[in-house]
């Protein structure tokens, strides 16, 4: 049975560390194999993660009408996502069993980049939880640093020019979804989140100790990542798969919350700057043939097609939907 390795990435934080090459090798093996890894030694304190889970719980504890007042709109993909609001693009018709709160890279109202790409802007911060903004932005900044460490390791492991991936993440379209999954009864059909691939470059999640995240192996089994307290689960998304010419794997995963407890998570989705065109930086592996994608266009299409009456067009890139 394939497994998801746990890798101590502290050698990446220390220039010239004797274990750097071995650590890069382990990360590359995980990302070219199952496409998932657990990481420890990130420098992010466990208390920081716990403080995040506390504010996420508080945000979903806000009374329903007040949450709806701050709901996401077609014009602004930020704010509250009510339970069952988006039906997956897989034709199954069964809505996922989560409520969410969408946040994007925080950009001031008057930032010049907003003229270049309308996807940038300030977040809609939950009114009832004033502490959320500081806690989330602090956590976000720490995960930006973790993402850059991992991207640096992947540049190294793939033999790419130093900085070629990392430089794409200046003024990124990185985003985060806060998620609450109520417990599902053992005989209840459907998913917390249906099986999908992530469309970003890489995702970093602090798994809820109640469990529920499952990853599909090449053999078709579903396995659960082990992740020590204070660690993170990291996975490759479609953008890094494309950049690497198919070497790094974007792997299907899903959430089913049969723990009997409320489950809270807050995945961080690393997405490059709007004008970055993602295309293979290495000769694609045999059988890997996907067109180049402009990140601003790709992100706009992901936002747009989440509304069930908005369908994908000929120029819509892959959207993480599984067809088998
Ligand atoms: O909540 C989780 O653990 C995973 C969520 C997820 O896969 C996603 O939002 O893309
Ligand atoms: Fe995902």
TrEMBL record:
| SUPFAM superfamilies per UniProt | Clavaminate synthase-like (SSF51197)
Q: Tell me which residues make up the Fe2OG dioxygenase domain.
A: 172-272
> Pathway, per UniProt?
Alkene biosynthesis; ethylene biosynthesis via 2-oxoglutarate
* UniProt enzyme class: oxidoreductase
Spell out the Gene3D superfamilies in the cross-references: B-lactam Antibiotic, Isopenicillin N Synthase, Chain (2.60.120.330)
Record's keyword terms, sorted = Ethylene biosynthesis, Iron, Metal-binding, Oxidoreductase
Q: Which Pfam families match?
A: 2OG-FeII_Oxy, DIOX_N
Which reactions appear under catalytic activity for this entry?
A: L-arginine + 2-oxoglutarate + O2 = guanidine + L-glutamate 5-semialdehyde + succinate + CO2; 2-oxoglutarate + O2 + 2 H(+) = ethene + 3 CO2 + H2O
Cofactor(s) this protein cannot do without: Fe(2+)
Which Enzyme Commission number(s) are on file for it?
1.13.12.19, 1.14.20.7
Family membership? Belongs to the iron/ascorbate-dependent oxidoreductase family.
PANTHER family, sorted: 2-OXOGLUTARATE (2OG) AND FE(II)-DEPENDENT OXYGENASE SUPERFAMILY PROTEIN-RELATED
The entry's protein name is 2-oxoglutarate-dependent ethylene/succinate-forming enzyme
Which lineage? Bacteria, Pseudomonadati, Pseudomonadota, Alphaproteobacteria, Rhodobacterales
